[in-house]
Amino acid sequence: MTNHITTKWLGGMAFESNNPSGHNLRIDAGPDDGGEGSGLRPKALMLSGLAGCSGLDVASLIKKMKLEVDDFTIETIANLTDEHPKYYDSVVIEYHFYGSNLKEDKLQRAVDLSVEKYCGVMEMFRRFAQLEIKTIFHKK
């Protein structure tokens, strides 16, 4: 299976990229780099893709395991190298679960399955970055 994305220049430093979902997204550089800051930054977008991919896995497993979770966030903190081409050489991915009836062992299993088995974007990141996974439970 292949993905085909078309990214069209809008002038200046801005682009619009389509997606199989039917939604488009705007990409732009910040003012420091000659853009207007009117869109998403490409490298940060990679981190959203990583968190989104794994988050979909975990959300699916929360539903399948019938777990009670009031809130769920993923914090993705990445270190960018100093030399060009700059890339992420290490990434910390924190899974934060909030609730009064958290089944920690099952939620940890959901995270582990995503990280180790299901998330293709995680596997791509593993090819160029050191990953650190943290699971944090916030009981109400």
Description:
The chain is of the alpha+beta class and 140 residues long. The protein folds into 2 domains: 1-40; 42-139, K homology (KH) domain (GMP Synthetase, Chain A, domain 3). It has helices at residues 42-64, 104-118, 120-126, and strands at 7-11, 14-17, 25-27, 71-80, 88-99, 130-139. It has a 3-stranded antiparallel sheet, with no helix packed on it. The protein has a 3-stranded mixed sheet with strand order 4-5-6, covered by helices on one side. Strand 4 and strand 5 form a beta hairpin. Helix 1 packs across helix 2 (104-118) and helix 1 (42-64) crosses helix 3. The protein is globular. The model has no long low-confidence stretch (mean pLDDT 97). InterPro entries: KH_dom-like_a/b, OsmC/Ohr_fam, OsmC/Ohrsf.
H/E series, N to C?
EEEHEEHHE
Strand order of the largest sheet: 1-2-3
CATH class of the largest domain: Alpha Beta
Arithmetic mean pLDDT:
97
Determine the structural class based on helices, strands and strand pairing.
alpha+beta
Total individual domains:
2
- Which superfamily, in CATH terms, is the homologous superfamily of the largest domain? K homology (KH) domain
What would the CATH topology of the largest domain be?
Answer: GMP Synthetase, Chain A, domain 3
Radius of gyration: 17 Å
Biggest beta sheet attributes = 3 strands, antiparallel
* Beta strand count: 6
Low-confidence runs of at least 5 consecutive residues: none
Strand content: 25-35%
Q: Any idea what the CATH architecture of the largest domain is?
A: 2-Layer Sandwich
Shape: globular
Distance between the termini: 44 Å
Helix content: 25-40%
Tally the helices: 3
